[in-house]
Write a structure and sequence with these properties.
The protein folds into 2 domains: 327 residues, ABC transporter type 1, transmembrane domain (ABC transporter transmembrane region fold, Up-down Bundle), CATH 1.20.1560; 148 residues, 3-Layer(aba) Sandwich (Rossmann fold), CATH 3.40.50. The strands form 2 sheets. A 6-stranded mixed sheet has the order 6-7-8-3-9-10. Helices cover 62% and strands 9% of the residues. A hairpin with an 8-residue loop joins strand 1 and strand 2. The radius of gyration is 36 Å and the shape is elongated. By secondary structure, the protein is of the alpha/beta class. The two termini are 65 Å apart.
Length: 591
């Protein structure tokens, strides 16, 4: 945990130094707090000789040792201590908040950057809600610990050390009584911290489940309302919420033990000092000295209470660091090889050679996939649901890496290329086009941020999107809504085609781009796709076989292997899996 905290704080060393200096100054000023009252009790009222340090300060308020002069010095000291404490407190609070915000920003960006580099395999096994909980709640916990708790613990320890020294100089016997309490407190707090960390981990897990459940329900609200299952979603949320409440109360039961248990030995110690101190007045101790000692004793227990309370912060930060580390240490990253190069402009030949891949070792998704798409060819991929079509195509841009075999472009293993350069030459149109928050213009230019206005308009026209975009109230500046919710399926798909067109990539992957469209939208989309596919190598996963009827080659995949490949006429003549799929679809359309 400390290693990660240290890494986060290292770039802000000078701010950390300012905060630490302000805290130490604040603590040092706090040590002077009781002495003005000692001057009043012992010297102004009790008539005892003025101490040498106070005598040297009396000229600042007019000189002399009269009662009112001493009282005036004590009053000036109280105001001066308050002013200096206020300045130190302001510096401390401002720079602590500043440090915390930047630490959170760096950790959030670092975590998100790593998430962006992870293989899709990671997202197949982790809930997005849990990930969101980590980069929000856990980052906030670490932010608070790094900017506040860490420094507070350092200052509390130094304050306790300073208080004990001054108390020892005043009354060694009383100071030793206070010191005797510490071993018990340290052992108790250490044991409680372990219990709190275990309970806090369960709380975090339950909170992540709440976020996941709520996210799934809200993202599927149209389906939920259509089937009138609001009660089911509410029941699911109530169950995970109740589990979170139970976990939180279990953690709180452990936390609630801290203050009462710590308070008992502290009270016993204070009571003994009070009893013994009273018996020493006035022979061995003045009233003012007793007041100063009691004030320090009270100030000593403040940091002690704070440190015992920090056991909770340490435990929660420990859990947060574990969850952050689980992401940062994940090895499901598509890494560039040390000798990887930027690819040259692709001619477009794509070859999968004896590729095997599995999400689960016991159930391979792809067993042996071999086919080649020559530059400029249209290759159709067909097969039953779950046969591995999308997985096979996902290997081309390295969304996943194969377990065995290789994928080549223009005869070179794609792992010899840098991932960024590889993906920059491959375009995509998926079954469901995902649009991002922003305008229509932003979404068309998403894959090419430097696109000009003319480029955007031209791509939209080629995609048959300009007509409906122009009819929108704000044209290309229209906000598309969350995931493009304000647009129809056909409109989203045409914007997706425009997004692929504007990149002008030599290789294009189409994943059932017309499967969810009505006949009218399909016609417009197919016309746009025909323009998009010209002069490119196209790998098209097809549900509607009519879209690939004229493909240069059709590859039929079944149970993770290439069952057959050839042209439409060749595969129909073989009367194999493709012919069976074609017959079933023809009979379905006829019916």
């Amino acid at each position: 945990m400390l290693r990660l905290i240290g890494e986060l704080l290292r770039p802000y060393r000078w701010r950390l130094f300012v905060i630490l200096a302000a805290m130490l100054f604040q603590s040092a000023i706090g040590l002077a707090g009781p002495w003005p009252f000692k001057l009043i009790v012992d010297n102004a009222i009790g008539g005892q000789p003025v101490p040498r340090w106070a005598e040297s300060l009396l000229p600042l308020v007019g000189g002399g040792t009269a009662k009112m002069q001493i009282a005036l010095l004590a009053a000036v000291m109280v105001v001066a201590i308050a002013l200096l404490t206020a300045v130190a407190t302001y510096v401390n609070l401002y720079f602590s908040a500043l440090l915390g915000q930047w630490v959170a920003n760096d950790l959030r960006l670092r975590t998100y950057h790593h998430l962006q580099r992870l293989s899709l395999r990671y997202y197949d096994t982790h809930h997005v809600g849990t990930i969101l909980s980590t980069i929000t709640d856990d980052v906030t916990t670490i932010q608070q610990f790094a900017s506040q708790s860490t420094l507070n613990m350092v200052v509390d320890l130094l304050t306790i050390f300073g208080m004990l020294i001054v108390m020892y100089l005043l009354r060694p016997d009383f100071a030793l009584i206070a010191i005797a309490v510490f071993p018990f407190l340290i052992i108790f707090v250490a044991r409680v911290r372990v219990a709190i960390q275990k309970a806090s981990k369960e709380v975090r897990q339950r909170q992540a489940e709440i976020l996941t459940t709520a996210q799934e329900g809200l993202e599927s609200v149209q389906v939920v309302e259509a089937f009138e299952r609001e009660d089911l979603l509410e029941q699911q949320l109530a169950q995970v919420s109740k589990a979170a409440v139970i976990a939180a109360m279990k953690a709180q039961r452990v936390r609630s033990l801290l203050s009462p248990v710590v308070l008992i030995p502290i009270s016993v110690c204070t009571a003994f000092v009070l009893w013994r101190g009273a018996s020493l007045i006035p022979t061995a101790m003045t009233v003012g000295t007793l007041i100063v000692f009691f004030t320090y004793l009270g100030k000593l227990w403040g940091p002690v209470f704070d440190l015992s309370g920090q056991a909770d912060s340490v435990a929660q930060a420990g859990v947060a660091v574990q969850r952050i580390r689980a992401i940062l240490d994940s090895d499901m990253v598509i890494e560039d090889r040390p000798d990887a190069i930027d690819p040259p402009p692709f001619a477009g030949e794509v070859a999968l050679e004896h590729v095997a891949f599995s999400f689960d070792a016991d159930s391979p998704t792809l067993r042996d996939i071999t086919f080649t798409a020559e530059a400029g060819q249209l290759i159709g991929i067909v097969g039953p649901t779950g046969s591995g079509k999308s997985t096979a195509v996902s290997l081309v841009p390295r969304f996943y890496d194969p377990d065995s075999g290789c994928v080549k472009i223009d005869g070179v293993d794609i792992r010899d290329y840098k991932v960024h350069g590889l993906r920059s030459q491959i375009g995509f149109v998926l079954q469901e086009t995902v649009l991002f928050r922003g305008t229509v213009r932003d979404n068309i230019a998403f894959g090419r941020p430097d696109a000009t206005e003319d480029d955007i308009l031209e791509a939209a026209k080629l995609a048959n999107a300009d007509e409906f975009i122009s009819r929108m109230p704000h044209g290309y500046d229209t906000i598309v809504g969350s995931r493009g919710a304000r647009l129809s399926g056909g409109q989203r798909q045409r914007i997706g085609i425009a997004r692929a067109l504007i990149r002008n990539d030599p290789i294009l992957i189409l994943d059932e781009p017309t499967a969810a469209l009505d006949a009218e939208s399909e016609e417009a989309v197919i016309e746009a796709l025909e323009r998009l596919m010209k002069g490119r190598t196209v790998i098209c996963i097809a549900h509607r076989l009519s879209t690939i009827r004229h493909a240069d080659k059709i590859v039929a995949i079944k149970e993770g292997v290439v069952a057959e490949q050839g042209s439409h006429q060749e595969l129909m003549a073989r009367n194999g899996i493709y012919a069976e799929l074609h017959r079933l679809q023809y009979e379905e359309n006829k019916a």
